[in-house]
Amino acid sequence: MGLSPWAIAVLFVPAAVFGTVFLVSFIKEPRQFRNAIWFMLLVMSLIGAGLVVSQQVWLVVLAIVVVGLAPFLVIVFLAVNSVSVIRHEGLSLATMLPGALALAVVAFLALYAWDSGRGPRWLASLIGLVPLEGLWFFFSFAALLAYSWLYRIMPRNRRYDYIIIHGAGLSGNKPTPLLRGRIDKAVELWERQQRYGVLIVSGGQGSDEIVSEAAAMRAYLTEERHIPEESILMEDRSTTTMENLRFSKDIMDGRSGTGPHAYRAALVTSDYHVFRASEYAHQIGLKADGVGSRTSGYYWPTAFIREFVAISRAHIWPYIVIAIVWLIGFIGFDVIVPWLTSRL
């Protein structure tokens, strides 16, 4: 028996609410982390309503099976990717990230299984906090993954006065393949707008580098891409993404003024880094669109995990709220209630 039109309408009410909130937030400012959360809630509510309306039991069962197997599929994927990225890039803290995350998931599952009915009550309660935090971790990870993809593919038919190229390490005095990809993407954008605007090469000199990233990028642009020097500006003091943007903004403000419509900028970085760089630009009041260059498939998961960790550190409050709610419940049910019961 099919559902009535009213029942179907009710099922899609959450999607309508989340969709409205997402659109309002997105139109107001697309470069915010909260958009990722609203977008994921919209997607999940649409999928849930669609499953119920379809009345196909096998689809519901399939969804449950996929969700149940997800932790194990994630473990296998991360382990395989860790081996791949280490083979390509060598062993380092960065390349060990996928493997470390896989081990963390395995350790939690093992601890959860071991503690079932064995450990003291307080330990069971503490372990119970982990899946709560984990739910937010994986939900926000999936949300950021989906929304950052959406943000990158949005069409932008704008003419940029400045195109900022973010540094990404050197090989000797030459840009690495990753950095060359960023530079080439910026040149592609510059040529697409009939060579209008100025390229800003942004990156200081690291302790292990013989020249600044900005100098190496300028040399690549002039010698290999044959870009005239008058179309290039250098920002060679920055050591972080935020400094890339702040110091580049200082240069643009000095040349074009500081009004909201004084200039329009694009910031070119690797595709996995686009959303975080764009969010930082919003935080400092820089009107700029993120443009991403392609990253090798084997390296993308490692790079995105790093991005997610950095963004999570900047938006740590949900984890704190979850911990506070858990603590209140722990004190209420594991401390106060037993104490009162013992005195009745």
Automatic annotation (TrEMBL):
Source superkingdom: Bacteria
A single GO BP: peptidoglycan metabolic process
Pfam families: DUF218
A GO cellular component entry from the record: plasma membrane
Keyword field: Membrane, Transmembrane, Transmembrane helix
InterPro entries per UniProt: Cell_Envelope_Assoc, DUF218, Rossmann-like_a/b/a_fold
Membrane-crossing residue ranges in chain numbering: 6-24, 36-53, 59-80, 92-114, 134-151, 316-340
Entry keyword annotation includes Nucleotide-binding: no
DUF218 domain mapped to chain residues: 161-309
Recorded coiled-coil stretches: none
Designated name of the protein: YdcF family protein
Organism: Bifidobacterium tibiigranuli
Lineage: Bacteria, Bacillati, Actinomycetota, Actinomycetes, Bifidobacteriales
